[in-house]
Design a protein that fits this description.
It comes from Roseibium alexandrii (strain DSM 17067 / NCIMB 14079 / DFL-11). The chain has two domains: about 25-85 and about 145-190, Helicase, Ruva Protein, domain 3, CATH 1.10.8; about 95-140 and about 195-275, Lysozyme (Orthogonal Bundle), CATH 1.10.530. About 60% of the residues lie in helices and about 0% in strands. The protein is built from 14 helices and two strands. It has a two-stranded antiparallel sheet with strand order 1-2. The longest helix is centred in the first third of the chain and has 22 residues, at about 5-25.
């Protein structure tokens, strides 16, 4: 290739990139009325990421999630935003710390072989996993009533969260393509999935078939618990090490939830469960 042709080719590539970038970058929104326009932009981005017909249809049918929008519009209303002791944080959702710990111990005992198998494979103790499971969904008792796709897309659209959670919105559409969820499947208000309330992007990255039935399903407890352990291990969890506040394993909990209140409460509860 001659220098002139090479230069012309480089100009064409740069120009093409400059033209493509605006079409693929969805802009965040500050009012509910902009949600439809955001979805149109996100659809281009999702299509470029490989989302197919079913996922794009789910996006088209998604509606702005009122509960998600209220949470993001008033972050001070979220318990994780105000400093609380671990005891206070747990009692915001359970009648007492003792109630939470006794329930966790009961679940740990009922599923002893499963937790032992997971710890052997991933190095994450059952006390940590059962504490997260209990706090997130009351051990599977309530996994949410918000449409997952609508919640994930609403969260991604909001300027305070954009673009941090846009990958999770696209991942939710990919899960629709795979048949794991539908546009009507329900979960947490920010698009969280199943027993452990995974963000869709984390499920795509770390999903494990814990019960070996050929399908990794966030609504199956064994799959969800194994996936949680896999996620923590791949983010640096060290088997047999302390998870006390300030330890390396404690810091890994931030990859699960970046609230210091949450991290302290899970580590504190897990310590009591181990007693």
């Amino acid at each position: 290739m001659t220098p002139r042709r090479a230069a012309l080719r480089m100009v064409a590539i740069v120009a093409g990139t400059m033209m493509a970038t605006p079409a693929l970058a969805a802009s965040c929104i500050t009012s509910k009325g902009q949600f439809g326009a955001y979805k149109q932009q996100l659809a281009q981005q999702a299509s470029a990421s490989g989302v197919r017909q079913r996922g794009l249809q789910a996006l088209q049918q998604a509606k702005l999630s009122g509960i998600t929008w209220r949470f993001e519009s008033n972050p001070a209303s979220q318990s994780s935003m105000r400093y609380r002791s671990p005891e206070q944080f747990l009692k915001s959702r359970f009648s007492s710390v003792n109630t939470f710990v006794s329930g966790a111990k009961r679940k740990l005992k009922q599923n002893a072989r499963l937790f032992q198998s997971i710890e052997k494979r991933y190095g994450v103790p059952g006390s940590i996993l059962v504490a997260i499971w209990g706090y997130e969904t009351n051990w599977g008792g309530y996994t949410g009533n918000t449409r997952i796709v609508s919640g994930a897309v609403t969260l991604a659209s909001y300027c305070r969260r954009h673009p941090r959670f846009e990958d999770d919105a696209i991942a939710a559409l990919q899960l629709v393509d795979r048949g794991l969820i539908t546009g009507n499947s329900r979960g947490g208000p920010s698009g969280e999935l199943g027993h452990m309330q995974f963000l869709a992007g984390n499920w795509v990255r770390f999903a494990v078939d814990g019960n070996r039935d050929g399908r990794a399903d966030p609504n199956n407890a064994a799959d969800a618990l194994a996936t949680a352990a896999n996620m923590l291990r791949r983010n640096g969890w060290r088997a047999g090490r302390s998870f006390a506040d300030g330890s390396a394993n404690f810091r890994v909990l931030s990859t699960w939830n970046d609230s210091g209140n949450y991290q302290r409460a899970i580590a504190y509860a897990a310590g009591l469960i181990d007693q």
